Amino acid sequence: MSGPQLAISNEFMEALAKLPKSQRKKVQEFAKKFRADPKSSAINYEKIHNMADDRVRTVRIDQKYRAVVLHPDTGNTYVLVWVDNHDEAMDWARNRTFEVHPETQSLQILNVEQVQRAVDQAKAAPPPVKSLFANDDDTILSFGVPAVLLPAVRQLRTKVQLSELEGVLPIEAYEALVWLAEGESVEDVRQYVGMLAEQESKLASAELSQEDTSIAENQSARRFSRVDSDDELDRILSAPLEQWRVFLHPLQKQMTQQSFSGPTLVLGGAGTGKTIVAMHRARKLASSIQSDMRVLFTTFTKNLAENVKSVLETLCGDEMERIDVQHVHEHAMSWLRTSGPTQVATDEEIALAWDQVAVASASEHLFHATVLFQQIQ
């Protein structure tokens, strides 16, 4: 059996980003010592009072700060899941459960208060006339929905209600439910969220403990990073937080790397990662185009354009020099300013222009003009 392994959760990175810079350096120094030997007698593990899960401990960073660690009963993977002031770290841990989902085998961290609130609301509401999901319970659970949240999912009637469970459900379960709510088939959804490839690889990890295996699963990989060296640890702890928020699951990554013969329309409901895919695709294109070419990333709102640009600046290196991010009206105005005198078109002129686009799209295998028009409206 290999030596101890260290994994770091996204929640840990969220908490780390909020600490003072001087404290983050202490955490980084501690993490190196911890990775080297989490069983060392110098690591001051402390049990948490009134904590039902005996695997969860705190470890001392200094006199003031504590990290929360998932300390395995079996296996060799230790998971850093939170870091904060002593009392706040204790409170955070008491309000969390850490379970390996029996269907997906992924490690899930649930907020107890949020879960209880969702379940209580579901119990208090009258039974829905028509549930958002016609799938049976086993199918719903197979996508990583925790059993405790099944009543809340069954109570859903609309996509808006589903969106209110974002952040309560594990991300892989939420994404799968969004796809199901959009009418996608069960098998297609399994492919979209990367479950088929994951199921095929499970036999390869049969000799690992449940805790070790759960961290290795694709569905866990979007929430946890395994650390195999000090250099990798430095890279992870030094990475901007935004990079942790743009994880790609296998199908999304395939879409960003694929070669297309023409324009491609990506469809998906809210929360399925379309913007994330677009950002990674922009970086991929910018890394492969000639130096005198540029990539245009457009959005429909100014705020989203600003957010995308901010994330791309942390996601990209030199590629950012070849990416322009503008909301569509800003781009249109920029083009008009360089095109000489302009005037407002009449309805007839607009209709004629769309007819011309339709002819061009048919001859050049582009999107049909109707599709383009619908996207702009």
Automatic annotation (TrEMBL):
InterPro entries: P-loop_NTPase, RelE/ParE_toxin_dom_sf, UvrD-like_ATP-bd. It comes from the Bacteria. Keywords: ATP-binding, Helicase, Hydrolase, Nucleotide-binding. The keyword Cytoplasm does not apply. The keyword Hydrolase applies. GO terms for molecular function: ATP binding; helicase activity; hydrolase activity. Residues 251-344 form the UvrD-like helicase ATP-binding domain. This is DNA-dependent helicase II. It comes from Stieleria bergensis.
